[in-house]
Request: fold
Amino acid sequence: MKEDVQEQIAAAENLSDDDRGFLESIRIALDGVIVFSKRLAEQVEKELRAASDPKRKSVLSEMLEICRRVPLYSAKTFREAIQSFWTVTVATELANITNVHSAGRLDQIFYPYYEKDIKAGCITREEARELFEEMLLKIMTHNIRPESNFIGTFYQRYEGSAPVTLGGLTSDGMDATNELTYILIEAADRARSAVNVVVRFHKDTPEELYMAVADALYKGRSSVSLMNDEQVPRSDDEARLHRGGCAGLCDHGLRRSAHARENGRDKLCRDTVKSRA
Reply:
């Protein structure tokens, strides 16, 4: 992504000062993520050297290998994809602590990695669910803020939540439900995480997904809400539609502002943030 930005800066001779500054800001932000990622790996290595328990050393050794790879390079496994997502998420939150972000459509984002690892025997369904349980709890911790005279105030839903969107439609208008849709609902239930898990429903949603959500709601141990795809504004690509902030509707990879729409920077932003798989 950094190379993409640098190429755009070098190739575009007629960029306005505002647009050039915008691209430079992306380059600086990416440099920050790179520094943060390297420091995270250094901290894991430090803990590994200090560890004496063989089991803990084994865990830290695997963590170090993963943290040295992602997000600096493309994730190759499900575990790497999860870590890459979380490292970038934390780096983003450090820069903007209002936490009005969206985790996005995690069942769609992570499914290719899960499918590949399951077929290769590198991970089990239970291991994947456990990783999601931990990830949802970590997302939940970002809703804890120092405030007023209190050490911290906990919110479940407010401006600052980071909803996870599941289900919905694919780019070609087909049902997007996959195995990770169900695993994430199970993970939310088992972790009892106060994270707003939003499930997109439409006319072709399988009955099994309705029942999975109903079961989670019946138990009352997690926060699951429903979005009716038949009633929301259409996106030019249904695969990008997700919830952000409190209850906002977002186009994945782009939070449009009035200013961005006016000067065409929405397209510049989308073209810039495309990563190289």
Observations:
- The two ends are 10 Å apart (CA to CA).
- Strands lie at 144-147, 150-154, 164-167, 197-201, 224-228, 241-244, 248-251.
